[in-house]
Amino acid sequence: MQHDTHDTHEGQRSHRAGHSDRPDHAGHARHAGHAGHAGHAGHADHSSHVGHAGHRPGTVGWAMAARATLHCLTGCAIGEILGMVIGTAFGWGNMATMVLAIVLAFFFGYSLTLRSVVKAGVDLRTALRVAFAADTLSIAVMELIDNGVIALWPGAMDATLADTLFWGALALSLAVAFVVTTPVNKWMIGRGKGHAVVHRYHH
């Protein structure tokens, strides 16, 4: 009988031991389930990058390109008109007047950019390099289109400041130059060139 009692106690201890192990296994099972969620922590971090999709290099809006072109157009228009006024006042020929207008267009185009970069706190030498890098191609394309339209317009080269033809041809040539140069500026800004160089000093 004592052996039976001993066996009974042993069985009860074994039975309790079996039950005591189950919570441990259940706990491990729950922890194992949570371990699967550890990999999701990284996914939460990736959600913060969604908002940066619009800042990828090369994604440039037409509005930004148009503003850069308008900036160049302003300087070109000032130079063109001033060159025509000076050439007409001194009685110069068409070629000399056109050369002066082109030189002044580059001068005022660079000057507007130079002024804005210097205001941002950049030294003059660096500002000159920025202006040349930002505006040279844009102004060159604009002047090529602008003067090309005027040269091809019948009678526009011989028109004086008092003629409606002069102002009409100038306005149309600048409008065409704006339309043609805007995609060029968009392409350059998208590659970190042109007026993208200027924007670095304003942000």
For this entry, give a set of tags:
single chain; disordered N terminus; globular; mainly alpha; 7 helices; 203 residues
Would you give an account of this structure?
With 203 residues, this protein is mainly alpha-helical. The protein is 77% helix and 0% strand. It contains seven helices and no strands. α4 runs antiparallel to α5. The protein is globular, with a radius of gyration of 37 Å. The N and C termini lie far apart (94 Å). The relative contact order is 0.11. Mean pLDDT is 74; it is low at 1-58.
User: Judging from the principal axes of the Cα atoms, what is the shape?
Assistant: globular
Computed over alpha carbons, the radius of gyration is 37 Å
Low-confidence stretches: 1-58
Q: In terms of quaternary structure, what is this?
A: single chain
What's the β-strand tally?
0
Number of helices: 7
Helix content: over 70%
Distance between the termini: 94 Å
Largest β-sheet summary: none
Strand-residue fraction?
Answer: under 5%
SSE layout and pairing:
Elements: H1 2-35, H2 40-46, H3 62-89, H4 94-119, H5 124-152, H6 164-190, H7 195-199
Q: Quick recap of the structure?
A:
The chain is mainly alpha-helical and 203 residues long. It has helices spanning 2-35, 40-46, 62-89, 94-119, 124-152, 164-190, 195-199. Helix 5 packs across helix 6 (164-190).
